[in-house]
Write a structure and sequence with these properties.
Layout: E1 3-7, E2 10-12, E3 18-25, E4 33-39, E5 46-52, E6 58-60, E7 68-73, E8 78-83, E9 92-99, E10 113-114, E11 118-122
Parallel strand pairs: 2-11
Antiparallel strand pairs: 1-3, 3-8, 4-5, 4-9, 5-6, 7-8, 9-10, 9-11
Length: 123
């Protein structure tokens, strides 16, 4: 039974930082991709960043490149999203997703395992 549990969301002022965590259980992470998506009110869910547990290759949405960093701790089955220089347009519910893939593309329909989300609000 796969579970993904996000934490670390909150409210910050523009220019601030947050680190999100996603703890995975009941899930073998070998050859697996984990990703962060976000959904703002009235908007479609969009991919933010992904990481491949094999080799650590990462992908980022253009809007967050240079500000967000995705990383992993395989021993803890946890993926992190360090978010710096947050802006009001980053306000959204952030979701962790996982799927056994070779290429960790940022397309929502590719992922079948999802967490409940954690809210990030930037003012």
């Amino acid at each position: 039974n796969v579970q993904l549990v996000e934490s670390g969301g909150g409210s910050v002022q523009a220019g601030g930082s947050l680190r999100l965590s996603c703890a995975a259980s009941g899930y073998t992470r070998s050859r697996n991709c984990m990703a962060w998506f976000r959904q703002a009110p009235g908007k479609a869910r969009e991919g933010v960043a992904s990481i491949n547990s094999v080799g650590g290759r990462t992908e980022y949405a253009t809007s967050v490149k240079g500000r967000f960093t995705i990383s992993q701790d395989n021993a803890k089955n946890t993926v992190y999203l360090q978010m710096n220089d947050l802006q009001p347009e980053d306000t959204a519910m952030y979701y962790c997703a996982a799927e056994p893939l070779v290429y960790c593309i940022l397309i929502e329909s590719t992922y079948n395992y999802w967490g409940q989300g954690t809210q990030v609000t930037v003012s």
